[in-house]
Structure formats: structure tokens, C-alpha cells
Amino acid sequence: MTNFVPTPSVPAPDIVRCAYLELVVTDLAKSREFYVDLLGLHVTEEDENTIYLRSFEEFIHHNLVLRKGPVAAAAAFAYRVRTPEDVDAAEAYYKELGCRVERRKEGFTKGVGDSVRVEDPLGFPYEFFYEVEHVERLTQRYDLYSAGELVRLDHFNQVTPDVPRGRKYLEDLGFRVSEDIKDSDGVTYAAWMHRKQTVHDTALTGGNGPRLHHIAFSTHEKHNIIQICDKMGALRISDRIERGPGRHGVSNAFYLYILDPDGHRIEIYTQDYYTGDPDNPTVTWDVHDNQRRDWWGNPVVPSWYTEASLVLDLDGKPQPVIVREEKSEMAVTVGADGFSYTRKDDASGEPTAVEGFKLGAQV
Amino acid sequence: MTNFVPTPSVPAPDIVRCAYLELVVTDLAKSREFYVDLLGLHVTEEDENTIYLRSFEEFIHHNLVLRKGPVAAAAAFAYRVRTPEDVDAAEAYYKELGCRVERRKEGFTKGVGDSVRVEDPLGFPYEFFYEVEHVERLTQRYDLYSAGELVRLDHFNQVTPDVPRGRKYLEDLGFRVSEDIKDSDGVTYAAWMHRKQTVHDTALTGGNGPRLHHIAFSTHEKHNIIQICDKMGALRISDRIERGPGRHGVSNAFYLYILDPDGHRIEIYTQDYYTGDPDNPTVTWDVHDNQRRDWWGNPVVPSWYTEASLVLDLDGKPQPVIVREEKSEMAVTVGADGFSYTRKDDASGEPTAVEGFKLGAQV
Amino acid sequence: MTNFVPTPSVPAPDIVRCAYLELVVTDLAKSREFYVDLLGLHVTEEDENTIYLRSFEEFIHHNLVLRKGPVAAAAAFAYRVRTPEDVDAAEAYYKELGCRVERRKEGFTKGVGDSVRVEDPLGFPYEFFYEVEHVERLTQRYDLYSAGELVRLDHFNQVTPDVPRGRKYLEDLGFRVSEDIKDSDGVTYAAWMHRKQTVHDTALTGGNGPRLHHIAFSTHEKHNIIQICDKMGALRISDRIERGPGRHGVSNAFYLYILDPDGHRIEIYTQDYYTGDPDNPTVTWDVHDNQRRDWWGNPVVPSWYTEASLVLDLDGKPQPVIVREEKSEMAVTVGADGFSYTRKDDASGEPTAVEGFKLGAQV
Amino acid sequence: MTNFVPTPSVPAPDIVRCAYLELVVTDLAKSREFYVDLLGLHVTEEDENTIYLRSFEEFIHHNLVLRKGPVAAAAAFAYRVRTPEDVDAAEAYYKELGCRVERRKEGFTKGVGDSVRVEDPLGFPYEFFYEVEHVERLTQRYDLYSAGELVRLDHFNQVTPDVPRGRKYLEDLGFRVSEDIKDSDGVTYAAWMHRKQTVHDTALTGGNGPRLHHIAFSTHEKHNIIQICDKMGALRISDRIERGPGRHGVSNAFYLYILDPDGHRIEIYTQDYYTGDPDNPTVTWDVHDNQRRDWWGNPVVPSWYTEASLVLDLDGKPQPVIVREEKSEMAVTVGADGFSYTRKDDASGEPTAVEGFKLGAQV
Q1: Distance in Å from the first CA to the final CA of chain C
Q2: Chain A to chain D, count of Cβ pairs less than 8 Å apart?
Q3: By the 8 A CB rule, do A250 and A296 touch?
Q4: Of the candidates C140, C147, C223, which has its C-beta nearest B234's C-beta?
Q5: What percent of chain D has pLDDT over 70?
Q6: Which end of chain A is more exposed for a tag (fewer CB within 10 A), N or C?
Q7: Rounded mean pLDDT of A108-113?
Q8: Is A241 near chain B, with CB under 8 Å?
């Protein structure tokens, strides 16, 4: 039985969007090679311990902070709020939740002002800020536009053992669910939740957590993503392409998952849809639908289900990972005991059913 | 020891390009749905037993003939030759080779005139023709242009047990090798051979044969191929997507393999390179190079190696399939006993080598 | 001296986005050919007098209503509001402004419920509604996806004589300015204003008005727009391509302007940028900057400046057109007495300056 | 009455394709900025007077030589021939034609061996060579692939006063006509001629000549060309975009014309069609067809018709320019006395005809 996070009596901060991730990396030079030389993110500022990066169309100081540290992990999931007062609101909100809260008027990273960081009820280090340094928005700097250009930060994806618990907590915080994956027993495997008018600012993936599943940047068009694959091939690091490219069922976006030198997972993502209407229809997928994760039925590699990055507490120590107790999406869909269908009517529901299965995907 | 096909004393016909494939299908209505409704090939003519199809930029009568029959198979691999006299040359050439040869002034299919069909030394039904009916070239009929439009026939791909034997025979016939896959023991696993100025008009894939591995049509751009996947997802036939989309190492083309209702394999292909210079460099790939078949290191599904279509003799009976005696590409590269690398220098050559392998691809 | 529209004391309705346009057309069959056969908009419903159309990713009943009538004109610019109560708010808001207001519980068009229509202070027929019928969102119906698919309604564009007056009125209504075009004398030529998180839901173009300048639909990628041009060429209606394709300076979107059978202007549009942050930087362009309207410096055809569609009052009669008194953008930038530059520093400001001008564009 | 070039009694050399252009530029640093920094051509070799450039998929030493000189001009149009003996054939062929011929065993440029250069009957400096240094073919070097990457040299375009005379001479030399533009009086305005299996290796444009109209490089996809425009906008050199982007009627290619610092015209070009069959249908366009030069009916700027680069004789002196005596395409199609139609049936043939004309293009 899920032990829900209580709804605070004070109003939630008005969150605008996911804004940046702070990532601890163990070898800053190698990470720079990956994020700057390979992916072409733009350096706003850097010193020997930290690199501040932004995407092509960003006007705030950074979307990604790479900080050198002993253990690869995510140190902060930062959201921008609508007004300076919303930082106060965030502080009050989490205090009422009984969370550990830290407020810094001067911010936790360069370029960002008054901020609050919390260890949230799911164990994630969340940050809320309004004040931020504006920098050159490169939108029309096509002289700097690479063939695989990353133009926006799109979303975070968090692994948590109890998805309904996390979902309720995030809905209280003002997020709205665009899509989810369930089964007929009522188990929820994942949920996609947004503040800005896209499919998500963050998603919850059921699994051992709290962990960072991935951070996603978007490109303008699909060929930009293909170029990133091609470039990784040319650099002979195709083994860092973990999954894709493909078309998601959930979100309808064209996607790619790649791994940075520490194993942090980066998604490259393009062309989901508008979700800004108050009654935007929520899409629920059957966990056994073979097209939910890849619209073309291509298999999800096991590592995508099992691997993720540690997250840090406010002292910079890794949060302990709690095991998911409910059924895992991998177990119910992959391998000999799993079950998936392409055409629902073809499927008998038994492992021997062959109609509607992806040919050649069995191992 | 390879038993080579002798080089005839008479000149080979001057082959222009691969021109059409005649395919026997068991359910014409289902095949029409696949090739016309799904893939959008254009019907030049049809009757209750046969459909003549062409691609968007084609001006000859057809690139694909679907003929209703009891056993799914390839009935003819037809090449266009440069002059009417080259049909005579083809007849003389194969007669000297001792092959069974049939000449029909009125052609074997509608729209095609004087032709010769042979059972070639590898067991394939080859056709050579010059005379052909010209039809409307749809090149600028953008009112008929679908999002996944197939604009040209690109190539055939044939499975044959002894690749060097087939290669020598095709080189005598005037084909030139653009790329091949070998190992350090001198085994050849596949070869790509062209007459027109692309990477191939046909390729030889080592395996049990003679069989048709696939026929390939090209699109203008990569997004056209992605649309075909998306459409198959929408039609809930994603289980007919066998492999891809991806970027080939060999040929550098962006590709997709799908299966028609009889299991005939169709490749959708775009953006290989110019090969028309007399000294066009031949590219040789190491069979253990994990990027040779997919530049991004994505795995080749086993069915792609093992499944293929029967081919017919001139009486319309399936040719017996002869087992390949040499090592198979699948055996040496897939699974526990196979070996592949991404970065050659990382690889110790032993099955335990982990550097440079595709993460998550092991099963 | 601008006679500003007063700010009402009651709160403005919370507008979500531009939602649909009602267009009067004189020949419904011809218009159907244009919007359905050529552009591929999807018919939700139709009868002998009216066609209700929606874009690929839309889930509300329609984005465009074509209604047969004697005079080609725009009958309503409809916005969706956040709650049913916002319709009340709209009614009160415009009543206080002294505008003519009509409320219909059953809506003004099929598929839409309780709505209010007004003759706004600029003379435009604005509609506000919340209740709307949900219909199938075609987002993943790639079996219906055409090569030039229109996936969303993006914005309206209105011609009005006094842009600062219109801007102040729309800002009061909750719109925020993303970009504008001015000159050093303080004249404003155009302004782009948004509620959803794109560059605009509507724009104000300085000129004789009130008139509809255009309605814009977006595509996923740039090639989709090129296909629409190609298809219009194939149909031999290239004379209905008025301007483009090109890259806008303002908005950074890739664009095309075409004309429907009545001369209503349609823009096809893709890839502007995110504007959802509260401090999204406003971009101001110099009217003499040759790249403001087309980033590549291609000339704007005169008709684009001078032609626009009439708008109707609530009785269905055309609103009288009031002449713009300030300088026109065309006059100050096109032809012998106009002035434009590509590189500001090159330009002497005199008509004889040749550096930085578009070669070949002089006529 | 055309004074045709006689057909030599000796066989023509077997030309494979257009291979490189030697261009004299007046400011090497500025030209380097244009071809290397802007367009991303790859430097094979360079010294203080000369830069040798190649496209992404090229394996011969260069496709473009930039040589510093006092007068901007084209110094050589170089074709590759099939065998070393074809250089002898070329020498004999032009000697019989009475042309000035120069043979250099060591070649005229670095990287190229035994070559013959001639002043051809039309006054152009043609070169023929077989021997050439192979260099790294960058086809899969996606780490070097820019967003606007030029992947192949596609063709030359030459201005000559008498197109039928030039056409007959080039047909004798083995070129085949893919398309041409004529009028009902039998005047030929332009012809496209190929050796490789594309629409052209060179084209003849009727006008004052001999002059170089342009050299064309191809990209993989249409968005690559759009990126070049976008980049020129970002660099504030949009005034060097002369015409386009657009879709050609002739050739069906997507195109762009830009001007280098000396005014040499470069076309960027993609997606014409296969012409390798012996009976490839020739397409003839009516000079009054408004879609022949731009499929979307966009106007051709006057400079595109009138401006072109000088060509040099074998002493490096500019060839005198001879005036075209026949009607000019510009005069018969542009401006008050010209005539064009979009739909042939609409056109009365009189200047007052308004149906089927491009709206907004009149000046």
C-alpha cells in the first residue's frame, strides 16, 4: 500500500520549466570532450573544476553544470519558477513537508541567484530559482550551428520505486500528467509530467531509486539526431550509443540514448506535441504494448531498464538506493517470461503466442 | 577449394543497371496492400494475376512484378543492357557457360520486349533486356508524392554459398566491386558489385543459396524512411520491421529492412556514394568490425542472416538450396562464441574482451 | 497621438491560445480542394455550407471553419480560455470596454460550446470559449500523414493601422510581446504577441485595417514546407505561392505564404522558439534591416504588404477599413525611396549606398 | 545560320565526369574564408598562392583550385577521362579541331598527372586528365561533417552565345542532353549535358560568352542548403545570396546560388535524377513556362542572367566575350515586354494576360 506524500497547506511554487541539471563527473576533460566536442553544447563559463553549458536557443546562464567530483552522480535537478516570491513559496512548501531545505541568496552555481535546494520526499535534490543571468541567445547564430545541434533542454527523467507516490507528489507541486504506462492489474510503470507545454519537464520511471535515469536535449529535426549517431560512429564510440535512434510510442518523439564517460545517460529528443490546454488528453499505454517504448517495436536493451545515475543529498553524499517492490517493466516485457504484443487482438496472452510479436527480436 | 566459373571467350553483355525483379507472391491482394497502400509504389498495369509496379522517378514500365503463384519466390532478376545487340551477347555468353537459356522476342513480362532468361552458374534466374515500354516518369508529380516515397530501384541482394566464386563470375560479367567483408583468414562474407554509378546493382551475401536476400528501393532523404517505420507502427505491423532503421557501415547508406506478407525482404535505402570513376577505391571491412553492418553498432537480428527467399528455375520450380561450407558471418560475430569490436585497438581478440563492445547488446 | 484603449477594471480572461479561425469563402468546393486536397487538413465534419477542419495533432473539434458566403472575409478569431469562468470574464471585460458583445451558450460553430464573440476595440471579431468537443488526435496516425502535413495551428496575423494602440490593448488582455519592428523615429511597424509558449498567438502588422493578414499552420520539419511548394508546382498553381519559402528574421521560423482561392493568405511555418519564461527577451528589429522579414535578404513582394482579407462585424457585414496614417513598412524599405541594409556599418543611410544591399533585388 | 564545329575523324576521349575547376581569385584570404570557413570545403593542400579543395565524398586530390591572380576568372574546366590513353585521344581530337593544345606530363596543378589543356572551339579552357593522386575520402568522417556540408562536385555551367553550336560540339565529345529550354521559333536558350549518370556535368546557358556561369556542389539533403543560407544570414552576408533557394524545373534539383568575393557564382544543388539509361528521356521546356527555372514560379533575378565570370586562354589572358545574337531568355520572360505562364491554357499569349502569372512578382 502506497504511503503517499501529504499535500502541504501552503501553495506550491509556480514552476515554469526544468532549467538545468548539475552533474558530478569524475574526469572533467573527458566530459568536456563528450558534451562540448561531441555534442556541441555551448560553454558559458568554465574553470578547472566546473563547466557551465547551454543549448543553442537558451538565454539563461546554463542548462547543464559539469562539476568534478569523486563519485559520478546528479547533484541537482533545477527548476525555474515564475517570480522571486516563488522561491519563498518553495522553501515554505518543502519545510512543511519536513524535507531538508537549504536557501542561498547567492545561488548554488554561477549565473543563478537566490535559490532553494531540497532533499525532496522521493530523495531527489531539487532546486528552485528565479534570478538568473541572461546570456546571448544563439538562436540565429547559424555560424555556430553544428549538424547535430542541441537547441533546448527538454526534460529530466527520474527513477523511483513507487511511481504513484511520486506522481501524486509532483501533481501537488503543479505538474500535470501527459502520458503513463500501466498494466491491467493497476501497476504503474512510468509517468510523464509537465509544467511547460511539452510532454514533460520530468518523468518518473519505476525502478530502484532515487536515481537519475537521463537528461534530454532536443534538436530541431530528426536528421540532427542521426548525425549524432553518425559522428559517434566516426569517432569509434558507437558502443556509447545505448538505445535508438527510434520513435517513442509515449510522447511520439524521435529519440536517441547515449552514455557519457561516467555512464550518465543523455537523451536526444525531437518533436513531441503541444500539451498546454487545461484538458490535454492523457494517454495511457499498456505495458505489454510492444510499441509503447519504441513505436517500431525495436527492443529496449536491458541496461536501459537497469542502469541509472546516483543522486546526491545536500551534503554531496549519494542517496541510498531503495529497491522497487512492484513488478518491473523489464521482467514483464522482455525475455522468456515477459509478454508483449504488436496487435492486441492477435495476442493470446500466453508466452507461446507468436502473432503480433516483433520478428527477430527474440533472443 | 573454389571451383570457379570459367570466363567465356565471347564478350559479356554491356549491363546498364538492375531494372526489375519478378516476385511470386501467394496472396496478391495482401501483397498489393503492402507494396501499393503501404509503400506507395505506382501501378503501371495490373490484372487478376499480376501487378506491375514502378518507383517515382522510373520511366521504364516496371521495377517490380508481383505474380500470383503457389510458392513465394523470386522468378527473375532483370538487368537492362545498353543495346538490342547486348541481348544477343547475353544469350551467347550464357550458352558458352553451358547454362540453360531461354530467349523470347516478345519478352517474359508485359512492357518488356526481346529478352533472354538464364539459369546462371550460381543458380539464379537472370534476365537481360533492352526493349522496354516508356511510361510517365513521375519525377515532378509532387501531387502524388507520399511522405515515404520510393523514388528508384537501387539494387538486388543475393545469397550464395561461395562469395568469391560468385564475385569472379560477376566481375567477368562486367560488375565492379565497391566494398566487401572479409576476415584475416581470407574468408569473404559478402561483396557489393555495381554497373551503374552507385555502390551496387547487386550484392552477394554468403549463406545457403541461391536465394534472394532482398530488393532495395531508395528514397530522397532519411526522413522518408523514418516515415515508413512510423506508418508501419500506425498500422500495427511494426513486427514486419525486421532491422533498422540505421546507417550502414558498408555503403554508408541509411537503411531499413521490412518484410512483405510472404516474408520477402525489402530494403529502403538512401544516400550511398558515387562509384563511377574507373579507379573508385574498394572498401574492405573486417567481419569483426562491429560498425560494418550498422555504423552505430546496433545488432543485426539473427533472422536477417538466416532467412531469405527461394529463387525459381526457368520452369518455375524452386532451385535447391546449397549449404554454405565456409564460416558464417552470424556465427563469427553474434552470441557467446562470436567476436566483434568497435575500436580495434581495444580488442584483445579474445571473447572476454569488453572494451569497444556495444553496451547492452549482449543477450 | 495614439488614442489608447483604456484598461478595464475587471480582470482579463485567461487566454490559453489561438484556437480557430472562421473564414467566409465564396466557393466552398474550390476552398475544399485547397484546404483538404492540397494542404491535407483533416475534415472533422462538413455539410453543404460549412467545413470544419483540424490539423494533425489537434484534439479540439476544429482549427478552421470554412463557411460559404457572399463576401470573402474572416468572421471570427477564436481563442481558447483556461476555464468556463473565463468566458464570463471575457464578456465582462469587453462590456466594460464598451464593445459590442454577443454570448451564445450553444456556441457559434459546431463542436464549440458556451462562447462570447465581440467586436473588439480594433474592429476585429474575437471569440472566447472553453467548452469544446474532443476529437481523435491524429498525432500517431502516420497512415494519414502526408508529405506536407500541417500539424498545428500556430497563429493569426492582423492588420491594424495603429500598432502601439493594438499592442497596448493586447498586453492588457494578457498577451506578451516576443518581437517587434521599429525605426529610430519610434514608429512601430509590427509586433508579435503570445499566450502559449511560442513566438506568437497573434501578430499586429501595421497597415490599413482591421483586416486579416494571414493564419498560420505549422509543420514538423522544413522539408514538409518545401513539399507544399513542390505540390503547388505540380498542380500548376505556383502563382498562388505569394512569398517564400524562406527563413524569417523575426521569429526565426522557416515560412511560406500561399493564397487560397479567395485570396485569403495562409502561412506555413516551422521551428520558432520557446517563449515561456516570464522574462523571455524581447527582440526588436530595425525596419531598415534587410534580414528582419527574410533572414536571407530575399525581397518581400508588394502584395504581401498591401493585400489582406476583410473582417466581419457581428452582423456579418465587412468592417470598414481605416487607412494607416504612419509610415508604411513597404514605403520605407522597398523601391527607389526606401532604404535597407544587410550590414549596418556598411550603410551610409543614403539611397545611393550600395554596400550591404541585396544584389539583384533591385528592380 | 549556325557555323557548326566539325566532327573530328578521330575518336573522342571517353570522359568520365567533370572533376575540378581552376579559379583565379584576387584575394586568396577572402576566398579561403568563403570556401573553407563558410562553405566547409576541405583543404587538401595549400600554399601562399594556391588552395586545393575537395568535397566530402571526393577521393581525388581536388575539385576546386583557387589560385591568386590579378583578374578574377576561370582558368580551367577539368574533366576526368577513363584511361591514360584517353588523354592522348583528347590531344589528337582537339588538334584535329585546330584548337590550341598544351600537354603536360606533370600536370597543370598539384595532385594531377599527365594532362592536356585546350582552348576549345567555344573559347573555354578545357582540361582532360586520368592520373590523379588519391586522398582520404571523408565519406564517413562525420566528425568533420558540417550542417551545410558539400559532398560532391556536381557540374559546371558555361555561358556561350550559340547554344546549338555548343551542344553539337559537346555531343560529338560524348555528352548527352538531358534537358533543354526552347521556344516555338526554334531558339534554344540552354541545354544540360552529362557524362556521369546525373542531369549534367556541364550546361550551356545562352548569353555573351565564353564565360563561366557557375560551378555546382551538391549536398545530401535540402536542409543542408537551407543551413548555408541561414549561416550567410548570421554572418550578415545575405547580400551574397543571389537567387534561391528554390526547386528547379529543369533537373528537379533543389538549388541555391551564392556569390564568392570575386563574384564567381556557386550553386549548391541536391536531388536531381538518374540519367544513365541509353534512352533516358530528354525533357524540353518552353522558355515561357514560368516554372522552368523555378518550379515554384519565383522570379529569376536579372543579375543571374547577365553576370558571369571571364575565362582565360592558355596564356592566362581573358578570352574576349562575344555577344549573343539570338533572343535572350531574360528579355523574352522578364519585365514589361516579356511573357511567361504558369498554366499554359490560361495564357492568351498577350502581355495583358493575367491568368497563370505569378502574383506579386511583377515589378
Answers
A1: 36
A2: 47
A3: no
A4: C140
A5: 94
A6: N
A7: 98
A8: yes
DSSP type of residue A60? B
C296 interface with A at CB cutoff 8 Å: no
Is the Cβ of A11 closer than 8 Å to some Cβ of chain C?
no
Of A45, A56, A113, nearest to A80 by C-alpha is A113
As a whole number of angstroms, the distance between CA A224 and CA A239 comes to 19
Q: Report the pLDDT value the prediction gives residue A3, as an integer from 0 to 100.
A: 82
> How far apart are the C-alpha atoms of C260 and C53, rounded to whole Å?
15
| Residue A146 sits at the chain D interface (C-beta within 8 Å) | yes
- Test A277 with C140 for CB contact under 8 angstroms: no
Q: Is C4 within 8 Å of chain B by CB?
A: no
How far apart are the C-alpha atoms of B336 and D194, rounded to whole Å?
52
Q: Which residue of C lies nearest to B143 if distances are taken between CA atoms? A: C231
User: Helices (DSSP H) in A235-328: which residue ranges?
Assistant: 302-306
- The pLDDT value recorded for residue A362 is 40
CA angle at C332 for the pair C331 and C338, rounded to the nearest 5°: 90
Chain A, 265-294: which have a CB under 8 Å from a chain C CB? Answer: 271, 273-274, 276-281
Could you tell me which of A281, A301, A291, A296 has the C-alpha nearest to residue A344?
A291
Q: Residue B225 and residue B228: Cα distance in Å, rounded?
A: 5
> Is the backbone peptide bond immediately before C8 cis, with ω within 30 degrees of 0?
no
Q: Compare all CA atoms of chain A with the CA of C270 and give the residue at the minimum distance.
A: A220
Query: What is the DSSP code string of D16-56?
Result: EEEEEEEEEES-HHHHHIIIIIIT-PEEEEE-SSEEEEE-T
- The kind and range of the H/E element at A90 are helix A85-96
- Cα–Cα distance, C248 to C300 (Å, whole number): 11
For range C244-260, the mean pLDDT:
98
Give the total residue count for chain A: 363
C148 touches C74 (CB < 8 A)? no
Longest dimension (CA), chain D: 61
Nearest-CA residue of chain C relative to A252? C140
Q: Would you say the ipTM is above 0.90?
A: yes
D302 in contact with C, Cβ within 8 Å = yes
Average pLDDT value over all residues in chain A: 94
Phi and psi of C67, rounded to 5°? -120, 135
Q: How far apart are CA C42 and CA C35, in angstroms?
A: 9
- Residue B123 is placed in which grid cell? 543458380
Does the beta-carbon distance from A145 to D233 stay under 8 Å?
no
CA dist list (Å): A308 to A325, B55, B206, B214, D268 = 17, 46, 40, 39, 45
Note whether A147 contacts D147, CB cutoff 8 Å. yes
Task: Kindly identify which residue of chain D lies nearest to residue C247, measuring between CA atoms.
Answer: D230
pLDDT at C354: 46
What is the percent of chain B with per-residue pLDDT over 90, rounded to a whole number? 91
| Residue in B197, B273, B277 nearest the CB of D80 | B277
Q: Which residue has the cell 509517468?
A: A191
Q: Do D276 and B60 touch (CB under 8 A)?
A: no
Alpha-carbon distance A308 to A208, whole Å? Answer: 9
Cβ density class C237-249: b for 16+ within 10 Å, e for less: bbbbbbbbbbbbb
Beta bridge partners of A21: A64, A77
CB contact under 8 A, B149 and C147: yes
> A43 near A51, Cβ under 8 Å?
yes
pLDDT digits 0-9 by tens, D198-243: 999 999 999 999 999 999 999 999 999 999 999 999 999 999 999 9
Q: Which residues of C touch A17 (CB under 8 A)?
A: 276-277
- Say yes or no for a CB contact (<8 Å) between D238 and C302: no
Give me Rg for the CA atoms of chain A: 20
Share of chain D above pLDDT 90, in %: 92
Q: Are strands B241-247 and C188-194 parallel, antiparallel or unpaired?
A: unpaired
D221 touches chain B (CB under 8 A): yes
